[in-house]
Design brief:
Layout (H helix, E strand, L loop, with lengths): L8 H36 L1 H12 E6 L6 E2 L5 E13 L7 H9 L6 H13 L6 E7 L1 H9 L7 E10 L7 H4 L2 E3 L2 H4 L12 E3 L2 H5 L1 H5 L3 E7 L5 E8 L6 E4 L3 H11 L4 E6 L6 E7 L5 H4 L4 H8 L9 H4 L9 H9 L10 E3 L2 E2 L8 E2 L7 E3 L1 H6 L3 H11 L1 H10 L21 H6 L6 H7 L10 H12 L10 E5 L6 E3 L15 H14 L19 E12 L6 E13 L6 E7 L5 H4 L1 H13 L22
Parallel strand pairs: 2-10
Antiparallel strand pairs: 1-8, 2-3, 3-4, 3-5, 6-7, 8-9, 10-17, 11-12, 11-21, 13-16, 14-15, 17-18, 19-20, 20-21
Helix pairs in contact: 10-23, 14-16, 14-17, 14-21, 16-19
């Protein structure tokens, strides 16, 4: 029979006690570790964690500084910061947002775009943070809201500084404007520099002198409660206002240029040839930059962007134009440096010219021709045939080399962002496009047609070099930077480029003599600007008419649109102003562009305009059908 063993109680008791002992020991060890860790945190790391806790309770809030003023050369304010009211809403204090917005609509203007922007901001902000509903309230709207604030829970009025351009679009392409910092700028290499700033210069000197204008950000340490709301300000570091900019631009002279262009597409750039100071910088049509500051409405922006006259294009800086006959003095200068060229030798102009062994005719603007002409007559009356022949003899390599000496095909270095280079065509340029260079292209380049493209600022800079004894000065829009606290002004030092090479000493004086005949001579193409023969100064210049062929919708043939151009400087003996005027699709340079130049030269040199309205059919100014 099988016997079942009895239970061993003693052994089970010993086993249970040993297990309890092990468990107690382990629990004790864990308690010791916990107490040790607690002691380490409370004693050894106390300072570190106390600082973290304090930082969670205190939040630094940036205080944007006032942006620096922008003034013209005479102290007229062109850009400033003005106080405005902003309407803000704290969502967690509003029970019924729809009802609140409905009440606000009875007090201020709120359109669909305002409400859409407000909904988008609500999604991006925390409930206890203020959300902007309207960024710029008029004084009347702010008063209406202020009277009713007690009945508008969660609504606050905040005063802030807003960029304002008191003269509207005057010189907008030189000044530029500020606008909200976009995401790319916030995450770019300069993101830390712009921390706390909401606006940034987007164009013009507002952008190129951003570091000077922006100032230094201020801070205040704000104590926050557990819900994240501000309780009180513990510390404040005042911001430092940005530096002020004084421009070389004369606001009155700028206004005259813009008024004379009358919103026609075109550009005017006037420079002091002695220093490179930019006196006038017009790109027409103009537009008001103020709506861009807080974000222009989509409908308004589409209207500007779709305007066929393209007001948003900076024509003075980026407009690319065939120079027409205004380029002839620079090719004449290149020829004057050679031994084989004699400016007194004559060449007969029958009204046309052709390449050797080629029947294609290149016509002069004067169909019946000009007869025997020398360099002086060729420039004074703008003989195309003379310059066809001169271009063929010089060759494209020499011609383009001297154009680059005068700055064409390169940026002038003006203190504005985004300048275009223009285009000086060369054999290498054609080869890069797998096309040969033809002699006919050399010929038409000789009168400023074909692929040769210049910007108005390049053209003004080049004629200023002629006026300044062959020395190009870097164009400067900004005259000086002022410390708003001390009033000390740091003036921009003029910078001179290497002088244009001169192999014949009297070549420049010969060229200036011939350009003077264009304005003051009896047969000069620009003699109309001295119609009354009372100019107390002598001016030199060159007219130009650039023909542009393009297809017209609904028309099977082709049509010519001519840009009117004029370059000049005065007084000839001691030049103080050099300028380039371009009026798109306006006809002859002598009729459309030259009178504008006279008005600006008169104002700058004499203090008044005294300009006659020119009748484009008046034979006293220029014979009908001319094409200089």
């Amino acid at each position: 029979m099988y016997r079942i063993p009895l239970k061993n109680s003693g052994q089970e008791t010993r086993l249970f006690r040993s297990r309890v002992t092990v468990a107690v020991i382990l629990a004790g060890l864990l308690v010791l570790i916990l107490v040790g860790r607690l002691g380490y945190l409370e004693v050894v790391r106390h300072g570190h964690y106390a600082t973290l806790a304090r930082n969670n309770r205190i939040s630094p809030v940036p205080i944007p500084p006032a942006r620096g003023l922008i003034l013209d050369r005479n102290g007229i304010v062109l850009a400033e910061d003005i106080p405005v009211f902003t309407l803000q809403v704290m969502p967690d204090r509003v029970r019924d947002m729809k009802h609140l917005l409905a009440r606000l609509k009875t007090l201020i203007a709120l359109n669909k775009q305002d409400l859409r922007d407000f909904d988008r901001r609500l999604q991006q902000h925390r409930p206890f943070q203020d959300v902007t509903l309207r960024a710029h309230l008029s004084e009347a709207e702010a008063a209406h809201v202020a009277v009713n604030l007690m009945r508008l829970p969660g609504v606050t009025l905040r005063a802030r500084l807003r960029r304002y351009y008191p003269l509207g679009g005057l010189a907008v392409d030189a000044i530029g404007y500020v606008s909200h910092i976009n995401q790319a700028e916030e995450q770019g290499p300069d993101a830390t520099r712009y921390f706390g700033f909401h606006h940034m210069g987007q164009l013009g000197v507002e952008r190129s002198y951003q570091k000077d204008l922006m100032g230094r950000i201020g801070f205040k340490d704000v104590e926050m409660n557990a819900a994240g709301r501000a309780v009180k300000v513990l510390k404040r570091i005042a911001p430092r206002a940005g530096r002020n900019l004084y421009l070389n631009i004369d606001a009155q002279m700028q206004a005259i240029g813009e008024q004379m262009l009358d919103n026609r597409p075109g550009s005017i750039v006037a420079i002091d040839p002695r220093s490179g100071a930019v006196l006038t910088f017009v790109s027409s049509p103009i537009y008001d930059p103020n709506p861009f500051v807080d974000g222009i409405r989509e409908k308004a922006y589409r209207k500007l962007a779709s305007n066929p006259n393209a007001p948003l294009n900076n024509r003075a800086l980026n407009g690319l134009y065939p120079p027409g006959s205004t380029i002839k003095p620079f090719f004449a200068y290149a020829a004057l440096q050679t031994k084989w060229f004699n400016p007194d030798s004559t060449y007969t102009c029958p009204g046309y010219w052709h390449l050797p062994h080629n029947g294609h005719l290149f016509h002069c603007w004067k169909p019946m021709g000009m007869g025997p002409v020398d360099l002086e007559t060729a420039i004074e009356e703008s003989c195309d045939v003379y310059f066809y022949h001169l271009a063929f003899k010089q060759g494209i390599d020499r011609m383009t080399r001297y154009l680059t000496y005068f700055g064409f095909g390169h940026r002038t270095g003006i203190d504005l962002p985004g300048e275009s280079r223009g285009l000086v065509p060369t054999r290498a340029w054609r080869r890069a496009r797998h096309r040969p260079w033809y002699p006919g292209q050399t010929v038409i380049t000789g009168i400023g047609q074909g692929p040769l493209l210049v910007t108005p600022v390049q053209l003004a800079d080049a004629v200023a070099a002629i006026a300044n004894d062959g020395v190009r000065m870097r164009p400067e829009v900004v005259r000086g930077v002022e410390n708003p606290v001390t009033g000390a002004v740091r003036y921009v030092r003029p910078f001179a480029y290497p002088a244009v090479p001169r192999r014949r000493k009297k070549s420049l004086s010969v060229l200036i003599r011939d350009m003077t005949q264009v304005v003051m001579g009896p047969h000069g193409t620009a003699r109309g600007i001295d119609w009354d023969h009372v100019l107390p100064y002598t001016a030199a210049g060159k007219t130009g008419t650039a023909q542009l062929w393009n297809a017209i919708p609904g028309y099977n043939g082709k049509h010519i649109h001519s840009d009117a151009l004029f370059i000049a400087f005065a007084p000839v003996s001691h030049p103080r102003i050099a300028l380039a005027v371009i009026v798109e699709h306006a006809g002859f340079g002598a009729l459309a562009a030259a009178p504008i130049a006279r008005a600006l030269m008169n104002f700058y040199l004499l203090g008044h305009v005294h300009v006659r309205k020119v009748n484009q059919t008046n034979g006293r100014v220029l014979p009908v059908g001319t094409h200089p």
